[in-house]
Specification:
single chain; mainly alpha; Growth Hormone, Chain: A; 2 domains; two-stranded antiparallel ribbon; 18 helices; globular
Length: 510
């Protein structure tokens, strides 16, 4: 009869763990990856505050303005899984450096844009190279840090950048637009790219490729086409209506293509997204978490900024500075969550707490009015939301890539970015539609005679608070759904053993 032994038997440390754990350059590599990730995240919001200035300079219409954002989102969301698998097949270092170089070149062209077409083309190219860069950066992090304690710290830093980058983008976009030019919202990427390229060339070693791997071309066509249709459909709904054929038609085709993709992945010999990646409950929970939180977080970044600038009269710079407490707390909580909470509690409590904190912050924001003060009405909910975002983003990056074989690290990382991009697209369309409907309904109920500026202001505030109520509901639903999907306890390696330092990997069995 088998019995447990009190004497631990030290198991062999995998070769990859031995090499990466002792690499003295790993923390410098983390700095390089963080610089690249910061550039990607900044670009999701840095142009938001620059759009009015760019519109005046290049003389394009308000209807065309959405394409400056959409042109980036379409290729970025469509190509993430393809580029993630490409990183596994041809090497993460190669795709990382190619993504950086291409992103920098596209940013230079966008900053020098002489007309609307040139700017939109540059933004589309940024999206293509961003899709190449984002999964390569995260997969490099996942394969560089194997020691659990160091991995927790590394993902804490990465999560802090991911959580705080959007707010920093608003601050940086406001400052650059106000004191330099909207063009510097593009040129700033050259600085981050130069730092990351030099560091990547000098510090990142050769990366393992998938041996004998081949690209799943039918899978690439199905998922890229499906994601393109979904992102375009949701973007079109945000600027038009849900009833237009260019909205529901693309959404229907997108869903159909993704169903075909899912069916194909279970049958092909070398799938683009191996089912084993998403069938793990914790990883699936991480991907669903980033999708749901990405949809609801949009309510913070867009409608709070609208409220501060349109209703309270804040400048672009002041709006960015007002977001700093949220940025600082999200970064701090991401680091604390990954280094202190994840090893002891696992991802489940972090997701539930993060979602509920975000829901509480949204509920708090429903109390705003036309004369609210920053300290009394905005500071508290922004800090609560920042804490929740930090817990979520720190957990997602670590959990979504945990236990994945090195040859699948790229596509697993891309799945995180895909969830975030799709969630953002859904949130943009859904919350914009809800806000427009709430404003129209308020005016219809309260309009007696000619509309007045005061009534228009009250209608706008009503639309913001309605969105915040919906965001609170989305976050609460996310806490229930994602909390139910994630497993209890700390993350464990294959076989159910807790993730420990390589020198402490033991088996207490005889």
């Amino acid at each position: 009869m088998a019995t447990r032994s009190a004497v631990p038997v030290v198991g062999p440390v995998p070769a990859e763990d031995r090499t990466t754990a002792g690499d003295p350059r790993r923390w410098l590599i983390l700095a390089v990856i963080a610089a690249a990730q910061l550039m990607i995240v900044l670009d999701l919001t840095v142009m938001n505050l620059a759009l009015p200035s760019a519109q005046r300079a290049l003389e394009f219409t308000a209807a065309d303005r959405q394409w400056v954002v959409t042109a980036y989102a379409l290729p970025f969301g469509s190509l993430l899984l393809f580029c993630g698998r490409l990183a596994d097949l041809i090497g993460r270092k190669v795709t990382f450096l190619a993504g950086l170089a291409g992103f920098a070149a596209a940013s230079a062209v966008g900053g020098a844009a002489a007309n609307f077409s040139m700017l939109v083309t540059a933004r589309a190219c940024q999206g293509v190279f961003g899709a190449l860069l984002a999964p390569a950066a995260l997969s490099l992090l996942a394969t560089t840090f194997k020691d659990p304690k160091e991995r927790a710290k590394a993902f804490g830093v990465y999560g802090a950048v991911a959580a705080a980058g959007g707010g920093l983008g608003l601050l940086l976009g406001g400052a650059l637009t106000s004191y330099l030019s909207w063009r510097w919202c593009m040129y700033i990427n050259l600085i981050f790219a130069a730092i990351a390229i030099i560091g990547g060339v000098l510090l990142v070693g050769s990366q393992q490729r998938t041996p004998g791997g081949r690209l799943d071309v039918p899978g690439v066509v199905a998922v890229s086409g499906g994601m393109f249709c979904l992102v375009y459909g949701f973007s079109n709904a945000a600027s038009h209506t849900w009833r237009t054929p260019s909205t529901w038609g693309f959404l229907v085709v997108g869903v159909a293509l993704l169903i075909v993709f899912a069916a194909w992945q279970s049958r092909t010999a070398q799938p683009l997204l191996p089912p084993r990646i998403v069938l793990d409950r914790n990883r699936a929970g991480a991907y669903l978490t980033v999708l749901i939180s990405g949809a609801a977080t949009f309510g913070v970044f867009l409608f709070v900024v609208y409220y501060m600038q349109v209703t309270l009269g804040y400048s672009a710079v002041t709006s960015g500075l007002a977001m700093l407490p949220m940025v600082a707390l999200s970064g701090t909580m991401a680091n604390i969550g990954n280094t202190k909470l994840m090893p002891r509690l696992g991802p489940k409590p972090m997701v539930i707490a993060g979602m509920l904190l975000n829901a509480a912050g949204m509920l708090w924001l429903t109390r705003i009015d036309a004369h609210s003060g920053y300290a009394s009405a905005l500071l508290g909910p922004l800090m609560v939301t920042g804490a929740g975002m930090g817990l979520i983003f720190g957990m997602v990056a670590a959990t979504g890539t945990f236990g994945v074989a090195p040859q699948d690290a790229g596509v697993a990382s891309a799945s995180i970015n895909t969830g975030q991009q799709l969630g953002g697209s859904i949130g943009t369309a859904l919350l914009n539609t809800i806000a427009a409907s709430a404003s129209t309904s308020y005016l219809a109920d309260h309009l007696h005679g000619s509309p007045t500026p005061q009534l228009a202001q009250l209608a706008a505030i009503h639309s913001y608070t309605t969105v915040f109520w919906w965001c609170a509901g989305i976050f609460t639903a996310g806490a229930v759904i994602c909390g139910a999907l994630l497993r209890r306890g700390p993350l464990t390696r294959h076989g159910g053993t807790p993730a420990r330092e390589p020198s402490q990997q033991v088996m207490a069995a005889r």
